[in-house]
Structure of SET domain-containing protein 5:
Amino acid sequence: MRVVLILSWASAAVAIQKPFLSTNSCPWKPLSSTELTCRLDHDQHTSPSPTPKETKPQPPPPSKWEATDQCSGKFCIFKNLGFGNGRGMVVITTPANIKKFKVLEKAIPKSSSEQPSPPFIISKIPGKGIGLLSNRTLHRGDNIMTKSPAILIHRTFFEQASPQIQSPLLKRAISHLPKTLRDAFLAQMSHFPGDKILSILATNSFQMDLGGKDGHHYGNFPEVSRFNHDCRPNVAFRIDQKTLTHVSTVVRDVKEGEELVISYLDSLEPRDKRQERAKATWGFECSCSQCSLSQKEIKKSDKRLEEIKSIEGKLGDVSSRGVTKKMMERLMKLYKEERLEGNLGGAYTLLAMNYNMLGDAKNAVKYAKLGVEAVELESGKGQPDMEVMRELIRDPRGHFSWKGRIGR
Ligand SMILES: *[C@@H]1O[C@H](CO)[C@@H](O)[C@H](O)[C@H]1NC(C)=O
C-alpha cells in the first residue's frame, strides 16, 4: 500500500512540477538560431504610437474569410478584413488549417477586438521609448488586454521556406491588413538584420496551436509588443490556446501612472544568465530595474534565487527528508522579497502538496486555492494538473498526498 502511495505521488510530483516550473521561461520558441526569441524594449522604437485619427465612423465589413491566389506551395494567404469588428486578420496556412481556425474562432471573446476603455495610455517613457502607463489603480487579476493575432503563419512555412520565398508573401499578407493594424504591426521593434517584416516576426511571435497534427503556427500581436520588459513585472501574460488570444493580467497592485511591464526573460534565472540571454537575443544587455541594481543588491538577489531553486528542489522530490513548514514559509518570503508575483503558480502548488504530505490540511487547502488562482492567471484555465489541486481542496485527508511525508 505504501509503495503504491509513494509511486502515485512520485508520478504526480513529476506531472505537477514540470509544466509550472517551466512556465517561467520565455514562452515563444526560437525562430532563428538564437535560443530565445523574445523582445526587450529599448530606445529603439522607430515610430511613435499612432494617434487615433478622427475619421467618419464607417461600419466594418462583415467578418468573412477569403482565400487569395497568393500562395507558395501548399501555403496561401487567407484574409478577413471584418475580423474582430473590423480589426482584420491575415493567415498564411493550408486550406485544412483555415477550416480549423474558422471553427476555433467562435470561442474568441469580443473583448479581443474592442476594449472601450483600457486601463492604460500609450506614452513616451523616459529612457525607454514607448510604453504603457496605467491610468487607474489596478489589482491582481485585472485584465489589461486580450488580443487576437494580426497575422498567423504556419510553422513549416515560417521555418522552412527560404527568405526569398517568405519575404514577398509576408509583405503581401501584411499589406492586406486594415491600415490601423498594419501601422501597429510595422511599428514593432525588430532586432534582426535583413527583411523588416521577417525580423519583426522573428522578434515578436508566439506559438499557437490550432490542433491536429499539422496545427502549429506563429502568431503576432502588435499591441502586445508595446509592453516594455522588466524582470520583476507587474503583468503576466499567456497564450490562451482555446480562444487563440494573448491575455495579459495584473499580478500585483499597480498605482495610477505606474508603467505596465511584462518579462521576456526567465525571471528565476540569475542576473548573469539573464544578461547573457538578452545579449544573445537582442544584442544589448538587460537594463530593467532588477538587472541594474547595485552589485550588492544583485548578489543578494542571486542568492535568493539560488535558495528558491534549492527549496523547490527539495519540495518537489518525494524522497526528500527534513521538509519543514519553516522551509515553506521561507520560500514564500523569498518570492515576496524578489517581487516574483508573476511566478507563484508552481510554488503555491508545491506548498499545497507538501503541507498535505505533512498532515496540515488547513494550509494545504489554502495553498491549493492560491495555486489554482495563480496557475490560471499565469497559464490559463484547463491546466491538467489543476484537477489534482481541486481534489485536494475538496478532500485533503482523502487525497493521495495526505501525510505522505510523515515517518519518512
Ligand atoms: C484610460 O485611458 C484609456 C485610453 O487608452 C481610456 O479609454 C480610459 O477611459 C482611461 N481611463 C481612465 C480611468 O481615465
